[in-house]
Amino acid sequence: MNEVVSVQALESKTDFIPYESYISPAFAKGEKERLWPAVWLVAAREEEFSEPGKFVTFDIADESILLTRDTTGQIRAFFNVCPHRGRRITKGCGLAAKFYCNYHGWQWNLDGTNKVMIDSGDWTGISPADVALRPVRVDTWGGFVFVNIDGQAEPLLDYLHPWPEMWENYRIQDMRYRWFKTTKLNCNWKVALEAFLEGYHAQTTHRQVNPACGSNRWECQTFGRHSMFYDANPASWGGANPNQPFIPGLGAEAFDGVGRLERIYRYMKTVSGDLHCLFTDRMVEATRRLPERVSDDADDMAVMMAFITLHYEICARDGVDVSQLSPQDLGALGVDWNMFPNLAILPTLDGLLIYRARPDGDDPDKCFFDIFPLERFAPGMAPKVTREFYEDWHDGNYPRIFVQDFENVDEVQRGMKSIAYRGALSNPRAEKVVWNLHRELREMVLGE
Ligand code: FES
Ligand SMILES: [Fe+2]
Questions:
Q1: For residue 107, which ligand has an atom nearest its CA?
Q2: pLDDT at position 180
Q3: Regarding the domain with residue range 39-167, which homologous superfamily does it belong to in the CATH classification?
Q4: Which residues of 379-415 are buried (b: 16+ CB within 10 A; e: fewer)?
């Protein structure tokens, strides 16, 4: 610490995040009015609309959006509310020939026009637009389907800058779901998301990585509303985390007396098994086969290059086309991005881990949390994925890393309600992505 400040003065520090942002109903109301309607939000993936009538609902705060593909092939989005007396029309996802309200039986075509209005002759002076589903602005990029609820946001590609340029060669549009799980959490949507927006917690929360994750040094880059972090020491893996003396690695004995290449392989097998995504089977194979290319005493960079070369070769062998993406372009994407406001996205060559947090109604203490990893599959090899939903994450059979993160978030929300807690002292280097999210958020919600 090279600077000493009093508790009062903390609040003027730029990396301080006031507690109200997480627990105040007034702040959640401000988000409902000035954040969620105004931004572009990922609502679904194009692959979910494989034929006309396939639909997905996307709920956020008190809004619900219904997305579908109409008979002309166009993806459309509507407010999921009946223009008659306001019933929510549908929920979940599925396949529909038309939409139907279960209260008084009005019906709509897939393009949102009204098809049936029971006893329509009883009304006078009502136009077709009054009884159609109200459209929501929709656009696509990277295979994602975005909505902008108030229709006033800048064009999607401008909003996303620098995603379209920096991620162009990554080609997210060629990836497909590996699995999709949603659960409810008893915490603010930001508490949930921020558990996945920094690497600083890994040495304690995911201490099984400590024996061989190397000396991670998390550095952040901000791009206006969006931001990312990367590991400035990526080639140091295989070595123990320097914090291991404070936080012994879980299962560290499995790494005792083992050579470096074998340590890297065991590390990769551990994290791959603890995530069931992102670190693909091909990455595990590439680390297992490192001894084919380098010896235990090779320098850090030689080991890293051997891994990258093997990973590309294994993808090519499996028919997974990654030829468009250079190691340099992939390296520039770092470890983890915040797509403002509510997504965390982590890339590897053939895996992409996506987290999304959404407030549940106007309660600052509740959210929905989605995890939907993508993968780059060989043609025809993508699995058929159905969305899973769990009221309680304990029932969701989540891999170990997510369980470890979920075990923190409810306790954070509880802790933040103490009168002793003034706000977050985010790490000015390693947690700048968290801070940047709040900087943009407070500007939109409070006009700061
Ligand atoms: S509320 Fe939908 S038809 Fe009456
Ligand atoms: Fe984590």
A1: 1
A2: 98
A3: Rieske [2Fe-2S] iron-sulphur domain (2.102.10.10)
A4: eeebeebebeeeeebeebebbbbbebbbebbbebbee
Mutate to test the pocket of ligand 1, among 98, 101, 122 (most ligand atoms within 8 A of CB): 101
Nearest-CA residue for ligand 1 atom 1 is 85
pTM of the model: 0.96
Per-residue pLDDT at 7: 53
pLDDT value of position 149: 98
Residues 6+ apart with CB under 8 A from 160: 40, 141, 226, 339
Q: Which residue numbers in the chain have pLDDT < 70?
A: 1-14
Residue ranges around ligand 1 (CB below 6 Å): 82, 84-85, 87, 101, 103-106
Residue 205 Cα, ligand 2 centroid: separation in angstroms?
7
How far apart are alpha carbons 325 and 329 in whole angstroms? Answer: 6
Q: What is the pLDDT of residue 212?
A: 93
Radius of gyration of the chain (CA): 24
Domain limits, CATH 2.102.10.10, in the chain: 39-167
Among all ligands shown, which has an atom nearest to the Cα of 83? 1
**Residue where the block lists tokens 């389907």:** 145
Give the pLDDT confidence of 207-226 residue by residue, as tens digits.
999 999 999 999 999 999 99
Beta-bridge mates of residue 177: 374
Query: Looking at residue 89, what is its pLDDT?
Result: 98
CB-based contact 283:264 (threshold 8 Å) = no
CATH 3.90.380.10 maps onto the chain at 1-34+178-251+327-448
> Which residue has its alpha carbon closest to ligand 1 atom 4?
104
pLDDT for the residue numbered 1: 42
- Residue whose CB lies within 8 A of the most ligand 1 atoms, among 66, 88, 103, 117, for a mutation test: 103
Q: Which ligand does the CA of 407 lie closest to?
A: 2
- Which pLDDT value is given to residue 6? 52
CA 73 to ligand 1 center in whole angstroms: 27
pLDDT at 158: 98
CATH dotted code for 1-34+178-251+327-448: 3.90.380.10
